[in-house]
Design goal:
The protein has about 190 residues and is an alpha+beta fold. It has 2 domains: about 5-60, 2,3-Dihydroxybiphenyl 1,2-Dioxygenase, domain 1; about 75-155 and about 165-185, 2,3-Dihydroxybiphenyl 1,2-Dioxygenase, domain 1 (Roll), CATH 3.10.180. It is built from 3 helices and 10 strands. It has helices at about 15-25, 95-105, 140-155; strands spanning about 5-10, 25-35, 40-50, 55-60, 85-90, 110-115, 120-125, 130-135, 165-170, 175. The strands form 2 sheets. The chain has a 6-stranded mixed sheet, with helices on one face.
Length: about 190
Amino acid sequence: MSLHHLALATRDTADTHAFYSGVMGFHLARVEVTPTPAGGWAKHLFYEMPGGGMIAFWELHDATLPTDFPTALSEGLGLPPWVNHIAFTATDLDDLARRRDAWLEADLEVLEIDHDWCRSVYTRDPGGTLVEFCVTTRALDKDDAAAAARLLADPAPAISKIEVVPILHRRGKVPLPLGPAADTWSRTG
């Protein structure tokens, strides 16, 4: 089963639309204008993603709702940005590179990480949420599943020995490998 859509609130529809339609390359497929339960109204914007599924945003017009609500998924809850994030599928490494380059062309900082079984690029959307494109680089097998079950059951598992070295990309600059312990997640914005 896959996700039909993920719906989030936006405080800046113009920036959200420019990012998700222009920079991300998603297609605005539908906008619904609906009443809210307390007598206001809202626009519900649906963007189709390549490969299926949608991401949607609410533009709220309701006097009973706050107007200064946080839109960054993690930081709005007091968590660092890497905790709650949205990962979109890249079809292959070339697609991942195209996505990274599109973000760089939009003057966004991009963090790239090879996780050993997948490779990811990260940036922040206009609302502050960490977004990711990710491609699986090797099939997960029964050994991965057995290790996952063991680690899930372990109340204090050992830290992975796989060295992850994030690379920070900035438009017009040489990619910068960061140390594994660097505070890289808060730098993608």
